[in-house]
Amino acid sequence: MNKISQVTIVAVSSLGLMGAATMTTQAATWHQGTPTALRGHWKNKTINVGKYFGVKKLYSYESVRVKKNQINASLTQSEGWHITNTKWKSVGANAYTIVGTDMLNKSQQARFTFKRVGHGYVHIYYDGVNIAKNTPFSPNFYRVLKNTSY
Question: Taking the model in full, what pTM does it have?
Fold first, then answer.
């Protein structure tokens, strides 16, 4: 073999090995806290729920506050879901999963998933179930306040 063909073979072989070495995996990466894109106060449309309780006017809404290391979700001013010690990962182009310690049962882990469904709107799931499911509330949550100082 002449010198040019040997150099060509070595060059092609090394390019093939470099291509195999630079292949990336699609493993999900967990990050501490909550995504900055979700931080702030989210709520759905305020509705009159009084007809369900025999009251003429009783207005209510669902609210979710995403802070740096916790999530608080509730129905107007009532007790709801509270998770702390959070970590998150991206589960698609427009979705995030956040897990943390459930404050009501500290030995249990809870999971919230936020999925963007339109400009400024998200659907919020708790352990895989939309938190507005089987309620008179809209599943569309919009941002009330974007506060990055949480």
Answer: 0.73
Query: CA-to-CA distance for 150 and 39, rounded, in angstroms?
Result: 8
If you ran DSSP here, which 8-state letter would residue 103 be given? S
Residue 9 CA to residue 92 CA, distance in Å, equals 41
CA-closest candidate to residue 70, choices 43, 99, 90:
99
Backbone φ and ψ for 119, nearest 5 degrees, come out as -65, 110
* Burial of 47 from C-beta contacts in 10 A (0-12 / 13-18 / 19+): middle
SS3 (DSSP) at 89 = strand
Handedness of CA 44, 143, 78, 133 (dihedral sign): positive
pLDDT at 120: 86
Residue indicated by tokens 């459930």: 102
